[in-house]
Amino acid sequence: MSSSEPSIETSITPKSSGKDAGLAPLVLTLVELIRQLMEAQIIRRMEGNTLSEEELDRAAESLRQLEIQVLQLCEIFEIDPADLNIELSEFGTLLPKSGTYYPGESSQNPSVLELLDRLMNTGIVVEGSVDLGLAQLNLIHAKLRLVLTSKPL
């Protein structure tokens, strides 16, 4: 981290700890999912030679700092980092077990993270509409289109 970048100090005092820490475990799980997804995309770009050495160094340092912050918050809220990997019954686990996934390689029982990584690498478009109403009156109509990809559009 350069001297011009602000450092983030964590001085959070939780009201409860462990699995009773409120939303902290869920938020940390989502942050860890996104961190690992970004890490997979960086590995893919590194192997595709689309990152300069400087970009790769910056990305690696940012991921390292984010991982440190997640671990610090786990410590503050007395959450075992292993508990951030949620078991989703027949869907498997949210995150791959440590050392079992490398981007671009398939596994027998892919985690949700692995599936998201594959989708982002190939791209997917999801379309839909939502009607919200009350007393049999449609009050809000939303049409949604989501393009999920790691490639520039």
Give your account of this protein's structure:
One of its GO terms (molecular function) is structural molecule activity. This is Protein GvpK. Keywords: Gas vesicle. Strands 1-2 form a two-stranded antiparallel sheet. Mean pLDDT is 83; it is low at 1-17. The chain contains three helices and two strands. 11% of the residues are buried. It is α+β, with helices and mostly antiparallel strands.
Order of strands, main sheet, comes to 1-2
Rg value: 19 Å
Report how far the terminal alpha carbons are from each other.
31 Å
Shape, per Cα inertia axes: globular
Structural class: alpha+beta
Kindly state the mean pLDDT as a whole number? 83
H and E string: HHHEE
> Major sheet: size, sense and barrel closure?
2 strands, antiparallel
Contiguous runs where pLDDT drops below 50 for at least 5 residues: 1-17
How many E-type strands?
Answer: 2
Count every helix, treating DSSP H or I runs of 4 or more residues as helices: 3
Short key terms for the protein model shown above:
153 residues; two-stranded antiparallel ribbon; 2 strands; 15% strand; disordered N terminus; Protein GvpK; Gas-vesicle_GvpA-like
How would you summarize the topology of this molecule?
Blueprint: H1 24-47, H2 53-76, H3 112-122, E1 124-134, E2 137-148
Antiparallel strand pairs: 1-2
Brief rundown of the structure:
With 153 residues, this protein is α+β, with helices and mostly antiparallel strands. It contains three helices and two strands; from the N terminus they run αααββ.
